[in-house]
Amino acid sequence: MPSKRPSRRRPWGAEPAPLDLGRALGGLRSESGADGEWSVRTVRSGDKAYVCPGCRQTIPAGTSHVVAWANDSMFGAASALEDRRHWHSGCWSARERRR
User: Fold this and answer.
1) Alpha carbons 74 and 40: distance in angstroms, whole number
2) Nearest to 60 by CA among 70, 50, 52
């Protein structure tokens, strides 16, 4: 049976908090650069280690990083998703300067 106490989270009749679209989509965003259109997702902690394509260093398990894949793949969206890469956040943001 529900409690008769009023909620402390949001008073009765108050407007709900605005929807955070980035959080609702799981952190997925689109970025464009000289190297094309990219879908980018921030991962708070990974389950295994990855090698960053920017610096060729290992991203240890449990470290926050970025996963990116090209939107304009020649072989379609499924192929682009299979070719996704895990980057250090700093390496991803500096990829334009490294070329």
Assistant:
1) 18
2) 50
